[in-house]
Amino acid sequence: MENIVDNVGDFILFYGLKVLIALAIFIIGKAIAKWLRGVVSTLLQKKEMDVAIQHFVSALVYYALITFVVIAALGQLGIHTASFVAVIGAAGLAVGLALQGSLANFAAGVLILIFKPYRVGDFVEIAGVAGTVTSVLVFTTELNTGDNKRIIIPNGQAMGGTITNYSTNDTRRVDLVMGIGYGDDIDKAKKVLEDIVAADDRILKDPAPTIAVVELADSSVNFVVRPWVNKADYWGVYFGLTEAVKKRFDQEGISIPFPQSDVHMHQVASNDS
C-alpha cells in the first residue's frame, strides 16, 4: 500500500511539475507575444503604415508566436509535437492550394497598402477601368466611375497590370488636336488658338502652353494645343477649349474639315451584238 501511495505521489510530483512548467511557458510566452505585438504595431505607426497593415502584421506576429508557445508547452507535457507540426503544415498547404487566387489578391493588397500606388480619393485607371478610389481593402479595390457605377477590382489584377494615377501630381496637361483645311491660313489659325488659350484664366502660364502644327493629315492640317492646368480644372478646360475653338473658327471663317473620299466613276462602253 505504501508503494502505491509513493508511486502515486511520484507520478503527481513528476507530471504536476511538467504541467506547472507547461503553464509557465504558456503564460510567459503569451505575455511576450502580446508585448511584441505592441512593439510591432508602434513601429508601424511611426512609419505611418496603413491601419489595415498594422493590424495584419501585428496579429500575424502574435499568432505565430502563440503557435510556437503552444507547441513548446505541449512538448513539455511529453506530447510528440512533430506529428502535430506536420498536420499544421499539411493543413496550411491544402488551404494555400485551395485559396491560391485569394492569397494572390491578399499579397497584392498588402503590397498596395505598403507602397501606396494610389489612395482613397485618387482618380485612377486600373485594369482598364477609370474611376475614383473609394476603398482600398486587403483583397479588393473599389472604384466609382464617372457615371456613378461601383467597380470592384481584385488586387491581383490591379498589381498585375498598369496603374495610371491622375491625381498624384498637382498639374496636368490638356492634349487637344484641332484640324483646319488646307486652304486656310495657318498663321491666322495659330493666332486664334493662342488668343483662346490666353483668354482662359484657368490655364497656367508656367509651363507655357504648346501650340504647333503637328501633322499634315489626309484631309486637314492638324494643330496640337497643349496647355497646363491644375488637376481640378482639367475637364473644365478640356470641354471649354473644344467649344471655344469651334465657335471662334466659325467666326473667323476657318474651316474644320471632316474625312471625305472622292469616288471616280468610269463608264465602260458596252459592245452591242
Report on the structure:
It is a single chain. With about 270 residues, the chain is of the alpha+beta class. It folds into 3 domains: about 100 residues, Helix Hairpins, CATH 1.10.287.1260; about 45 residues, SH3 type barrels (Roll), CATH 2.30.30; about 80 residues, 2-Layer Sandwich (Alpha-Beta Plaits), CATH 3.30.70. The protein is about 50% helix and about 20% strand. The strands form 3 sheets. A 5-stranded antiparallel sheet has the order 4-3-2-1-5. Strands 7-9-8 form a 3-stranded antiparallel sheet, with helices on one face. A hairpin with a 5-residue loop joins strand 3 and strand 4. Helix 1 packs antiparallel against helix 2 and helix 6 crosses helix 7. It is elongated, with a radius of gyration of 36 Å. The termini are far apart.
- What strand line-up does the widest sheet have? 4-3-2-1-5
Total beta strand runs: 10
N-C termini distance: 139 Å
- State the helicity in percent bands: 40-55%
The appropriate CATH architecture of the largest domain is Orthogonal Bundle
How many domains in all? 3
Tell me the number of helical segments per DSSP (H or I, 4 or more residues long). Answer: 7
The whole-angstrom Rg is 36 Å
Low-confidence stretches: none
CATH class of the largest domain: Mainly Alpha
Helix and strand succession?
HHHHEEEEHEEEHEEEH
Average residue pLDDT: 83
Strand content: 15-25%
- What coarse outline follows from CA principal-axis ratios? elongated
Structural class by SSE content: alpha+beta
Named CATH topology of the largest domain:
Helix Hairpins
